[in-house]
Amino acid sequence: MKNKKTLTAPCGLDCFNCELYEDNLTTDFAEFIHSKLGIPKEDIVCKGCRQQDGKHYHIPSDGCATLNCVKERGLELCCECNDFPCALLAPIADKAAQYPHNMKVHNLCRIKNVGLDRWIEEEAGEIRRKYFKGEFVVGKGQAD
Predict the structure, then answer these.
(1) Phi-psi region at 2: left, alpha or beta (left = phi > 0; alpha = psi -120 to 50)
(2) 20 to 30 A Cα–Cα from 28, which one of 3, 44, 82, 114?
């Protein structure tokens, strides 16, 4: 696997834990996506947002607005920006069960608080697991 720091998207997503990342993509999952969406199998594998300049089948053809913004500002992560958090990172309910977009601000706050290295090694996988498998309890957040 490549360096996990370069596989952390500017928006705080952990590309290295994504099902589409080249080291994680299974033949069965690629076949499922191909059969459901008609995406050519060779276009399904992802090398990470920074490595592909924010261009992948599930991102608009003009690229990722968040990545473009970070590059224009000369930053590595959104949490380094004076405007953090901004509307590009706003959580939304649409497709929240399928995509980890609502983890972005939490991840970036944790990165800012504990550092990128600790977040990568100790927290990123657990945060993603709880996001997709955890249970929400009103007044408590995630149940363990």
Answers:
(1) beta
(2) 3
- Tell me the percentage of the chain whose pLDDT exceeds 70: 98
Distance CA 101, CA 30 (A): 21
Give the three-state DSSP class for 131: helix
What is d(CA 95, CA 6) in angstroms, rounded to the nearest whole number?
26
Query: Do 48 and 9 form a contact (C-beta atoms < 8 A)?
Result: yes
Q: What is the pLDDT of residues 62-81, one digit of tens each?
A: 888 999 999 999 999 999 99
What is d(CA 11, CA 95) in angstroms, rounded to the nearest whole number? 17
- Domain boundaries, given as residue ranges, for the chain: 15-132
